[in-house]
Fold:
Amino acid sequence: MTNPPLPPSSASQPLSLSYDGTHIVFRLLRCSGWGPELMNFGYFPHRGLLALPANMLVLLSRRQFRLASEAIGHLDVQAGDDVIDIACGRGGASYIIKCSTKAARVTGVDLLAENIRLAKNMFPRLDGLDFVEGDAQALPMEDASVSRALCCEAAFHFPDKARFVREAARVLKPGGRLVVVDFVWTSAAFREHREHEFMRYIRDTWHLDDLFTAEEYRAAGEAAGLRLVREIDWTDNVTRPLQEIFEANVWLAKRAWGRRVLRDFQPLTRNFSDAEWDAVAYSARAHRFMVPLTRYKVMVFDKPAIR
Ligand SMILES: C[S@@+](CC[C@H](N)C(=O)[O-])C[C@H]1O[C@@H](n2cnc3c(N)ncnc32)[C@H](O)[C@@H]1O
Structure:
């Protein structure tokens, strides 16, 4: 059976522009030590405003490593497993899986050719580590060919998330596991905010059309023969602390002494103009609007073994 054509993306700009560093959000993230080999938001073990100074001082790349490692822990990779890292970005999580588990083979798949090229350049060539171009909604893999599948902070991009879940279920062997880390609507009713000015800004910035709710993920998994066995809420460890850092940057940038502080501990923002800080402030307000409408979830699906 041939697959129907892939759904078009409704975003107004190419996906690559979401990550190319010209957008003010990605410039600020890069200046705070974000990336380049991991593209997730980062996991902050210490939560709440008291942790803010400490959270601001640690390079975001360390938080990103922690997020990838925590997500990989939920995969429960066994010796000899074949693992697929769906929408692998620049390959950081694939590399961590290969180095930190006894997986036999790890394949990172991403839609963007430039990400695959970067992943291949950035990581040493290891036996059993491959990066290939492909769409999460039409995976370039045989049926029942992998035992573990990770999709870390990427499915919000996919126009057809149910189709991605079906694809992940198709390539999983019976007894296999899929871990999805994604933003979800707190409630389906919040979809009504999609056309709000701030949400349109967020959707353009992050190249997303719509989100699923956790319940929609569960139902998509069930329809594809997967059972949701664990659902963990990381909102207070991921989106909230990052938003607090974002707003602290804006607060400091509005004050002459604050700019001096920023120059010291975040020197790469030194040349941000007033207009650029205004753009950061607008962006922080738009992201603040989104935070209560969404949750950041880890969802673990198992594919039943054949008896
Ligand atoms: C936020 S990044 C996360 C990358 C990686 N999982 C990580 O944690 O570092 C999202 C990734 O999804 C990829 N992507 C977006 N749409 C895709 C699709 N339909 N199929 C495969 N990859 C896609 C983007 O190119 C980008 O690399």
The mean pLDDT is 92. The chain has one domain: 15-239+285-302. Residues 31 and 268 are 5 Å apart (CA to CA).
